[in-house]
Amino acid sequence: MRLEGDTAGRILLQSVDFITPVVDDPFTFGQIAAANALSDIYAMGGRPLFALNIVGFPRDELPLDTLSTILAGGIDKVHEAGIHVIGGHPVDDPEPKYGLVVTGEVEERQLLRNSTARAGDRLILTKPLGTGIIATAIKQGQAPAEALAAASETMCVLNKAASEAALEVGVHAMTDVTGYGLLGHLLEMCRASDVSAEIAFAALPFLPGVVELVKAGLAPGGTKRNLKHVEPVLTVTGELADHERLMAADAQTSGGLLIAVQPAKADALVAALQARQTPAAAVIGRLSAATPAQLTLLGS
Question: With 70 as the cut, is the pLDDT of residue 34 above it?
Fold first, then answer.
């Protein structure tokens, strides 16, 4: 929505997202859910203004202290974003759910979309992959402590710094990597921008323990659906095992930003991300003019 009057040149942004628990600790769950909801605003190059809570909670099954702790985790992350929660709405629900409605703004000239990538652009990813696989392992009590800690840490990281780096350098397009996984969100970008993509599997950053967990059959249903969705337009070259294809399609919670940047600025963007200590700053592939949109995953 374009704002008029003395705010001309700015666009109002609105997003909503909520999730079920991906970790056992309620405070950490609140942090992750809030970071996940704020990500849509950052993915557009925007600045959050305020948020509203969305809560589903089984009040007769779990103590209200648990809900208070979830909300405290969310507020902690919202305050880190420099804004406040100004209200919200709870409902009685047999399964806990938490998230935010976030209102933000962006200067029109800085608005970033997933539809403006260009042939030749380099693709850069700002968080490691594998949170869906690790979350499934957590639910089944099979997640190693190192994997749990690493996944929790990266999911709690706001995409604020990565978005600021992209705006500082100047990039062509951007989206966040969430439920559709890297390949799913990349395909959306390619179709919207009328380009194709080539990704090097060896360049993809993964959380510790992901390889062992996916080999043990702990890929979530969403990850399998993601891979099936992109398979009609996916070409795999070289040696790439079935579990590695699943890793590239893993459904993410509070994932990083996928950024399309012109080649001359790729090094500057990596440096800007590293200076802000984003969880990853990986150059994972490039875009080409081939149409209709196709994905190529390069194996060894």
Answer: yes
Q: What is the pLDDT of residue 300?
A: 77
User: How much is the pTM?
Assistant: 0.95
297 φ/ψ sector (left φ>0, alpha ψ -120 to 50, else beta): beta
Tokens 């600021």 locate to 164
Homologous superfamily of the 122-298 domain (CATH): PurM-like C-terminal domain (3.90.650.10)
Are 252 and 129 within 8 A, CB to CB? yes
Phi, psi of 96, deg, nearest 5: -60, 140
Stretch (H or E) spanning 79: helix 64-80
β-partners of residue 99 are: 18, 54
Cα gap 95→35, rounded to integer Å: 20
Q: 97 in helix, strand or coil? A: strand
Cβ(102)–Cβ(14) below 8 Å:
yes
| Structure tokens that stand for 212 in this block | 């062992």
